Amino acid sequence: METNLLKYLAFTEIGEGKSFTEASEILGVSQSGISRMISDLETDWGFRLFERDRNGVQLTREGSALLPYAKALCSDFKSLESAVSGLKDPSRGHLRIGVFSSVATYWIPKIVSRFKEDYPDVTYDLLLGDYAELEEWVAEGSADFAFSHKPASPDLDWELLDMDEYLAVMRDDDPMAMEDYCPAHCLEGVPFMLLERGGRSEVGNYLEENRVHPDIRFRTWDDYSVMSMVSSGLGTGVLPSLILKNLPDRVVTRPLKPPLFREIGIISRKGRPLTPVADRFMDYLKYR
After folding, report:
1. Residue 77: per-residue pLDDT
2. Domain with CATH 1.10.10.10 in the chain
3. Which helix (H) or strand (E) holds 43?
4. In terms of CATH, what superfamily is 86-161+264-287?
5. Cα dihedral across residues 229, 233, 236, 239: positive or negative
6. Measured on CA atoms in the order 203, 191, 189, 246, is the torsion positive or negative?
7. pLDDT over 80 (residue 199)
8. Average pLDDT over the chain, rounded to whole?
9. Do residues 276 and 197 lie in contact, with contact meaning Cβ atoms separated by under 8 Å?
10. How far, in Å, are 52, 95, 112, 166 from residue 280 at the CA level?
11. Closest among 143, 111, 115, 139 to 127, alpha carbons compared
12. What gap in Å lies between CA 84 and CA 118, rounded to an integer?
């Protein structure tokens, strides 16, 4: 591997929190070699990248400013390696797929199982995150593509795969469980587990649009945590149907009124063709 690129990889690994020992194991270089590469970069660039003390190393301000560029460069190199490998033999490529929990649980095993029948030697990295993280990973090249909702960024392409209906989730002894539907206004003031992290989610937008103000007890991006808390009698939630195939004991669902849906699609970098193995993987999405 070209020496400068190896230096950038070392900088990236340590900048993301790895120790010098861990970086040496990942890159197959001695620990002293890692130290020398970082020292060479600091000499070449004219400033320190890390502050060293008894607790380890921390990025300097200059190091923090340069880390995203080094990550992008290293990610592009890994994409290049994957593309070269795929062109030589698409059956031995590597896929980096961004997913959220319900897709990882219910779609990916079916798709990969069928894909593996034809391409048994392909390897995978599954990157589990929220919508914002998935967009970021695709944009910076850490993921080849991701399952997500329609992105806000104009630099990402998106193709719709499915519409997934949200359902109200409650205990079987909740008064709302006696009804066929859960009107939005029935959520007013009730103890509520909100599926949300960071920015406003589809559920958060739905509550706002319908001018409903539940008593939000918990916020989490983990669907299973919401189901578990509902099962324990801590309140009500609203979750997508895809994750509700196996309900905990005493948990029931009711359609919302008005209904709420989320769009699930594939995001990829605009103007960047997929690697050969990723492009072939797209043909197997129908097996979800």
Report:
1. 83
2. 3-70
3. helix 31-45
4. Periplasmic binding protein-like II (3.40.190.10)
5. positive
6. positive
7. no
8. 90
9. no
10. 46, 11, 12, 31
11. 143
12. 20
Which tokens go with 200? 């406003």
If DSSP codes are grouped into helix, strand and coil, which group holds residue 281?
A: helix
CATH fold of 164-261, please?
D-Maltodextrin-Binding Protein; domain 2 (3.40.190)
Stretch(es) of the chain classified as CATH 3.40.190.290: 164-261
The rounded distance, in Å, linking the Cα atoms of 73 and 78 is 9
Centroid of chain to Cα 176: 33
Is the whole model's pTM more than 0.90, yes or no? Answer: no
Architecture per CATH, 3-70 = Orthogonal Bundle (1.10)
**275 contacts 86 by C-beta, under 8 angstroms:** yes
pLDDT tens across 177-192, in order? 999 999 999 999 999 9
Q: Please say whether the beta carbons of 139 and 156 come within 8 A.
A: yes
